[in-house]
Amino acid sequence: MPQIDRHKNRTVNIEFAAVEDFSLLPYPERLTLILITSGSINGILNERPISVFAPGVFCLVEDDDFKVTMKHNVAAQSFRFHPEFLNTITLSETQGYIPTGPRIQTGLSLFQRDNLYAVPRVTEKAYPLLFEWFFILGMEVQAQSDARWVCRIKKYLIQILGLLEDLHQHSEQSPVDLVLEYIHTNYSRKISLEDLTNCAKLNRVTLNKQFQERLGNTAIGYLLSHRLKIACDLLTHTGMKLDEIACATGFEYDTYFIKQFTAKKGISPTKYRNITRKFAVAQ
Fold this sequence. Notes:
alpha+beta, Jelly Rolls, Arc Repressor Mutant, subunit A, 9 strands
């Protein structure tokens, strides 16, 4: 059942299952993320065999044809949401959320059916962070601790989808891929060039040369661009304050975040937020 926001008297089309038993999949009118925390599950998805082992993630859309053929000591939890949950913008405390056209693109490739088996790659380093974010999603849905609980859920959902998409797209194990995985799982924390060279086991000249050849940027330059990419989503699709966004994306101070954002984007974060919201509403 959808959640009733007791702070704003509105319906929020999301659900969280602390224990997913796989009996009702796929859920109508929902995109579903399932985190397999132990065991394994086998099934048939759209006439193709599928196996998911812990730790793993399974993505479903409402039109999928999915049947379980075997479960082995499986434990899982799920978060499901109406597609419009990603296509909303906070206008004010009184107006709440107004649907717009598709806006958040981060992670949507996970639900496209040309995506092999709908099982994105989950690494040993990424799993603890995914588990933590899923846990917080469940807590926020249950607690609704203040009027901004939906905002925080959108934040963590954007981060989960972004991390899964990045891991799925960079599935090799070259030094650059190892650094990309490190960045995608640690960008909210303090990261130095030494951290990245240690991860790649390369000196900074060689690492930056390989990054330039593959991504057209230095390792630290890529880190900054990735942080700003997440920040843009949070500015557009949540009501988070600038200092909260700065903290969530690895900037030590909001003043430094504003400075870097303005320098790279040519516009302040606040102006960027206002423009993207006006554009979305105009659609």
